[in-house]
Amino acid sequence: MTKRVVLIGHPVAHSLSGAMQQAAFDALGIGATYELWDRAPVALADAISELRSGEFLGANVTIPHKERVVPMIDRQTDDAQATGAVNTITREGKRLIGHNTDVAGFKFALDQLVGKQKMPRQAVVLGAGGGARAVVHGLITEGFQRIIVFNRHLHRAEGLVRHFSRSAAHMELKAMPWHDSIIEAELDKTKVLVNATSIGLVGDDIPVPAEILPADLLVLDLIYRTTALLRAAEATGSRTQDGESMLLHQGAAAFTLWTGQAAPLDVMQAALAAARAVGLRSAEGEPTGAPGETPADDATGTPAAVAAGE
Fold first, then answer.
1. Given the DSSP bridges, would you call strands 192-195 and 56-61 parallel, antiparallel or unpaired?
2. Which of 125, 178, 223, 285 is the most buried (most CB within 10 A)?
3. H-helix or E-strand containing 38?
4. pLDDT tens digits, the chain, 310 residues: what are they?
5. Which of the following is catalytic: 3, 66, 118, 191?
6. Alpha-carbon distance 194 to 120, whole Å?
7. How far is CA 219 from CA 113, 199, 268, in A?
8. Start-to-end C-alpha separation, the chain
9. Which ranges in 130-264 belong to alpha helices (H)?
């Protein structure tokens, strides 16, 4: 019987993950289909209940559901529990297990960005959704000693900081108001800048003015294209990276959880490239809304986050 894997989000219309995961199933001869389920929050609980059926291998979860889904599953892995966000679900019988593979994807992308130099210890993070939570947890576990979080709505950044208060007790983790002058002052003290909002997903929107970017930053944008932020950072001599590597490696981790097999990374990367060539640009679909207030800001990340999420 053909098994099913679904991406649950709202929206999910133009998913990069669908192309990537289906190519991986097909390449390894796994009888599985990857489906897109657009489910509004009111329909989320019913969607999760469906996953308990034996026809499902599991699911991806994306904006705006990564945090909402947590109380609906039976158990969380360490990364999911630490972040308070779930982006991948597997089944054990009728029990549902929540994972957060965004963390592994982010760490891989960060290692690529840093390269052979010593891992920095200070970072600025833009955004406070599920994607940002994976980023902050990854930075904490990589040994960062100072992380400053900015979000358009300060209370969400403060909520993120409270969530990590115990695991970050040994370090400085702060939420600060989103003002250009404050961000500029913090960037002058830091080495790593991560954009975990969807500002820049469409057009040439930039989350912070180009003129406040110092030289020699390490800049990771979770959006899957060369954004205005990345172009501005490159112009100062900074090293930059978009969100494709995070997307690829979080997806590979999810594939292995569902199938027990190593993910065919070359196949998945080629499928991503082909999907991007025909205009797909978001793991989640097409985020909408004002800068800093988009669904990806509630995610993967950012995706849009994000958000390099799904």
1. unpaired
2. 223
3. strand 32-38
4. 899 999 999 888 767 899 999 999 999 999 999 999 999 999 999 999 999 999 999 999 988 899 999 999 999 999 999 999 999 999 999 999 999 999 999 999 999 999 999 999 999 999 998 889 999 999 999 999 999 999 999 999 999 999 999 999 999 999 999 999 999 999 999 999 999 998 998 889 999 999 999 999 999 999 988 999 999 999 999 999 999 999 999 999 999 999 999 999 999 999 999 988 886 655 443 333 333 333 333 333 333 333 444 4
5. 66
6. 13
7. 8, 14, 24
8. 25
9. 130-141, 154-163, 180-187, 228-235, 244-259
Cβ-contact 7, 59 below 8 angstroms: yes
Tokens at 51, concatenated: 């996953």
Buried b (16+ CB within 10 A) or exposed e, 172-209: ebebbebeeeebeebbeebbbbbbbbbbbbbeebbbbe
- Omega of the bond leading into 274 within 30 degrees of 0 (cis): no
Q: Which amino acid is at 65?
A: H
66 part of the active site? yes
Helix crossing, 154-163 with 130-141: angle to 10°? 40
Alpha carbon separation from 28 to 25, 137, 226, 270, 310 (Å, rounded): 6, 32, 31, 15, 21
Quote the CA–CA distance of 191 and 25 in Å, as a whole number: 39
pLDDT recorded at residue 281: 58
d(CA 232, CA 16): 26
C-alpha neighbours within 13 Å on the C-beta side of residue 42:
0
Task: State both tokens at 230.
Answer: 């990345």
Q: Token pair for residue 253?
A: 């981790």
